[in-house]
Specification:
By secondary structure, this protein is mainly α. It is built from six helices and two strands. Strands 1-2 form a two-stranded antiparallel ribbon. Strand 1 and strand 2 form a beta hairpin. Helix 2 runs parallel beside helix 6, helix 4 runs antiparallel to helix 5 and helix 5 packs antiparallel against helix 6. The protein is globular and about 50 Å long. The C terminus is likely disordered.
Amino acid sequence: MTTLLLSILLTIALAAWYYRRQNASATLGGAISKPKAVWLFYALFHYFFLTVWCYFSFEESNRFHAVLPVFIILVYFRLVAQSVLMFWLKRWTPPIGISYNLMTFAILCGCVFSRLGKHELTILHPDEGLLLGFYGLLGMMLLVDSYYAWSFYKLVGSLTKGNEAIWYASEEDAKFRRINRVTKWLNVFFLAYSAVLLWIICNGHFQFSIFNFQFPR
């Protein structure tokens, strides 16, 4: 619990620092809006920290535990490849990210359904339900991020490449107004989803008051 809380606080601090850095001067990638800064570090936190935290927090006997290392390998490989394309080769384009997102989404779904086998969802152990909820969140993030990337690509085209590349939607440019507004409201949904999910995980039990049942972890 302490590690999780400290990681959240560190992520918030890094997001605030990065937002100020990108908007303080002409930095590679361009200025970034507040909604986009929140989404960027929300995604980084979930992909690169929370997946690893869940790997060590859930028992290996959980049917869906084996899906985590697959997803972790995929996102960390993307981290390396995307960093090379963005900062060294400077050839990054949104379609590359979209394609990788969709491939990762397909692999995630395939792994989850392969673990289900012939078991019905109604006989899931509570911890298995939690991991399914987490995978559902990751799947939605991949799809929403693909939508953001495509919307951004339609506005900037090939300007994501080169020494003056633009990677983010700024607050000043009117053409980004709609995508920033959509991002702002979807941030509220995703932050609420994560807050509830993490509260349940850290609380240590499911309680369905309607049916007056309680399932200890």
